[in-house]
Write a structure and sequence with these properties.
Strand order of the largest sheet: 1-3-2
Strand content: 5-15%
Order of helices and strands: HHEHEEHHHEEHHHHHHHEEHE
CATH topology of one domain: Hypothetical protein af1432
Number of strands: 8
Low-confidence stretches: none
Oligomer: single chain
Radius of gyration: 62 Å
Shape: elongated
CATH architecture of one domain: Orthogonal Bundle
Helix content: over 70%
Length: 508
């Protein structure tokens, strides 16, 4: 058993030995092959390294040659720069030598200038002293100081300049005024000739004549007076009606005529007559307003404005019918505006509406003058600002600031002041003359005053010792303003102030 085992072990060991030897033999052959490959690779590497070294050596040699050439070129440039720098240093040295010479020359000149300056200071001091002595001598001869004499001369020159300026100013004003007056007269004459006859306006009587066999009781008259505000007074052959509202007065007159024709006098008949009269008057006012718009060829207006324009038909001022006056003023204003190149439509419109406030004054509690109330009434109903200003400025409530405002005021005066346009009573004329005399006596500067041309012109004489040329203009404006504020008159009143200088001499 042991032998078998030993045999087996010996066989296994022999087999293992054989396998080991075979493996070692294979490994030795493989190692020889690897060594051969390594030697071949090493030989190739050495060959490539030798080639690279040789190539690098050639490149380094070429680069060294290039750097050597660059160094040679740089050395040449450096030599050139050194030569140029040397030349510049030599030039700089020559300049320094020149500047040293110039500096020495300037120092010499400065010394000379300093000496001259000292001499000039001495001369200036001497001249100042001589000037002072001369001024003192002149002031002694003239009898006053230089400042006082200069102030006196200055005041004299200013006075002469003011006199000359005033003369030129007044001369220019006179020339401009004369030219403006001539052109204005020409325009007004032209417009007056072109303007046709005024539109016929009915007269509104203030009396009612009684009819035979027919009369009105005191109760009827009281009822009419209470409803219209018209005062009814008996007169021979009828009744006299009085009221500041001419529209209401005409309503009462027509109602009385209707009652006289019908013969009825009950309260119902009175109310019916008043209603019929009012309807007829309102229809007439509407037609009159539309007729004015048509005659003047104006564009559409607010119905209330048209109706108010028509109501002017029932009003008069110094016997001049206000509806007719408004149309006449509008036509004249349009003609003159056309001659001046202004807007004729706007001119006619403003002139037609300038007296609307007179109707409002009579029928409502209008605020301010008729110009102010009429302007507010027109603006509230769509009229333009230019029209408002022209209305409110035509009597001076606002200072006219546009050509249209001046034109409306001028044509208003032209229509009211033309011959035959207005009439006044003897009592009103006498009152106006007394007012003018009273106003002139209220100015102490006025020596004498003459009222001429039926109160349409006031000529005033003043003492030239107390009133200057400027004072004359101021005095005329003050007198005119007082006349506007305190007097009632148709048209316009011209104020002329005369300042006369008189010189006397005596020969012995």
């Amino acid at each position: 058993m042991i032998g078998v085992a030993a045999t087996t072990i010996a066989g296994a060991a022999l087999t293992a030995s054989t396998l080991y030897l075979n493996h070692k033999s294979k490994h030795a052959r493989r190692l020889q092959a690897v060594e051969a490959e390594a030697r071949a690779a090493l030989a190739q590497i050495h060959a490539e390294a030798d080639a690279s070294v040789e190539e690098a050596t050639l490149r380094l040699a070429a680069h060294a040659e290039a750097r050597e050439a660059e160094q040679i070129s740089a050395e040449a440039l450096l030599e050139e720069d050194e030569a140029r720098l040397k030349r510049m240093e030599e030039a700089q040295a020559r300049r320094l030598e020149h500047f040293d010479g110039v500096e020495a020359t300037l120092e010499d000149l400065f010394e000379r200038v300093k000496g001259r300056k000292g001499q000039l200071e001495l001369l200036r001091a001497e001249i100042t002293g001589m000037t002072r002595r001369q001024r003192d001598l002149l002031e002694e001869v003239a009898g006053g100081s230089q400042r006082a004499l200069m102030e006196a001369r200055k005041a004299e020159l200013i006075s002469r300049a003011e006199v000359a300026a005033n003369k030129r100013h007044h001369g220019a004003l006179e020339r401009l005024s004369l030219r403006a007056e001539m052109e204005a007269r020409a325009l007004m004459d032209l417009s007056g000739h072109r303007h046709g006859g005024p539109l016929p306006a009915p007269r509104w009587p203030s009396t009612v004549d009684a009819r035979p066999g027919k009369g009105l009781s005191s109760e009827v008259l009281s009822l009419i007076s209470a409803q219209t505000g018209v005062s009814v007074e008996p007169r021979e052959g009828g009744w006299r009606l009085s009221c500041h509202n001419t529209f209401a007065r005409e309503q009462a007159r027509r109602a009385m005529e209707l009652l006289l024709r019908s013969g009825h006098s009950s309260e119902a008949h009175v109310n019916r007559a008043l209603s019929k009269a009012l309807t007829a008057l309102e229809r007439g006012a509407q037609e009159a307003g539309q007729r004015a718009i048509k005659v003047l060829k104006l564009k559409e207006m607010h119905p209330e404005i048209v109706f108010t324009v028509g109501k002017l038909l029932y009003r008069t001022s110094f016997s001049q019918n206000q509806w007719q006056h408004a149309i006449e003023t509008a036509e004249l204003c349009g003609m003159i505006a056309d001659e001046l190149g202004m807007a004729t439509e706007e001119a006619r419109r403003a002139a037609l509406l300038h007296d609307l406030g007179k109707v409002l004054w009579a029928e409502t509690e209008a605020v301010g003058s008729h110009a102010i109330s009429g302007a507010l009434f027109a603006v509230e109903r769509g009229e333009a600002e230019a029209v408002r200003h022209a209305i409110i400025a035509h009597h001076g409530e606002e200072k006219p600031s546009t050509p249209l405002a001046h034109l409306v005021a001028a044509t208003d005066a032209l229509s009211g002041g033309r011959p035959g346009a207005r009439r006044e009573t003897l009592e009103a004329y006498t009152q106006r003359m007394d007012d003018l005399n009273r106003i002139c006596e209220g100015f102490s500067e006025i020596q004498r005053a003459y009222i001429m041309h039926g109160g349409r012109e006031v000529r005033i004489e003043v003492d030239p010792r107390w009133v200057s040329d400027q004072g004359v203009e101021r005095l005329s404006s003050q007198v005119a303003q007082l006349i506007e504020e305190e007097c009632v008159y148709p048209g316009q009143i011209k104020v002329m102030v005369i300042r006369e200088r008189r010189f006397y001499a005596t020969a012995r």
